[in-house]
Q: What sequence folds into this?
DNA sequence: TACGATTATTTATTGCACGATATAAATTCC
DNA sequence: GGAATTTATATCGTGCAATAAATAATCGTA
């Protein structure tokens, strides 16, 4: 049989299942923060840079605003962010961390270490692999655009 | 600032966004087959080996039966598979490809090539990266178990 | 001022993923 | 042989992601 259509040879299957595996490691950690995985990513991005617009966040997270809007509303309901329409340009909504959202960072600071530990690799190796996967992503994104 | 909590250094973010990027490349291809991405993976597994049980499929795809059952029902509604209770062990449900499901393979045979092309890497490099990501998955899965 | 472009929201749909629970057969133990 | 245990699957309910399409508001510009 040609191994053309064999699951174990699919890069996509590897990425897909790795993503699930990561999610399973994250789940219990994020549960303690009351965040889902994409919500966590949004928070990380806001901890990096507060006051981003919905569109700006979407660009960083590779998500459409129609995906982000309900997600951000949940974060607002949870009390982690505020959504404020910009004064300068009233089309734009700016997302700002609340006090509680800022505090949450302290509880999240240990998570990357847990993941790294679970991956069973040292930091250097992990960084290299991470860069490779990013390169794959960029190539794929370029092919679609 | 410590780059501890920096999105661009997260292996998880790389995998997550790469998974999305793959999905975007797949989407138009799979639309012509009338399949979603996880449905496609299930079909690939069945093309490899017809007549698998729900549990067996779940083990290969790393999915719970509670996730697979509705997915397989949709494939059944689409006319690609039949779900038959096993004679020997009536707890077990066996999934069998329909004629149409078997024929679908011909239309799918070209997809992996498209993905490989979109990734912008040669086969050897892709295989190497694939193996690395699988290794990451295995390490993560082991850490949860 | 009118028009096109930008930005976000709303609405609706589809499907994934999982936990909890129920069920049912097979196996094992007494 | 019958009861308890194990194993496998299905069902139900919840939550959320992701997208498409339509709408609305605003901005910049011709």
A:
């Amino acid at each position: 049989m040609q191994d053309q259509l064999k699951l174990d040879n699919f890069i996509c299957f590897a990425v897909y299942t790795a993503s699930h595996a990561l999610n399973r490691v994250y789940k219990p950690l994020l549960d303690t923060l009351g965040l889902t995985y994409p919500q966590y990513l949004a928070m990380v991005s806001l901890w990096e840079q507060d006051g981003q617009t919905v569109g700006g966040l979407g660009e960083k997270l590779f998500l459409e605003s129609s995906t982000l809007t309900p997600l951000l509303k949940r974060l607002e309901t949870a009390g982690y962010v505020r959504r404020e329409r910009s004064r300068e340009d009233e089309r734009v909504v700016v997302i700002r961390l609340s006090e509680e959202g800022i505090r949450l960072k302290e509880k999240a600071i240990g998570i990357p270490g847990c993941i790294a530990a679970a991956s069973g690799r040292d930091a250097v190796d992990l960084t290299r692999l991470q860069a490779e996967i990013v390169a794959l992503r960029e190539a794929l994104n370029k092919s679609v655009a």
User: Anything to note?
Assistant: The first strand of chain B starts at residue 52 and ends at 53. Residues 123-144 of chain B form the longest helix (22 residues). Residues 36, 38-39, 63-64, 66-67, 70-71, 74, 89-92 of chain B lie near DNA strand C (CB under 10 Å from a C1').
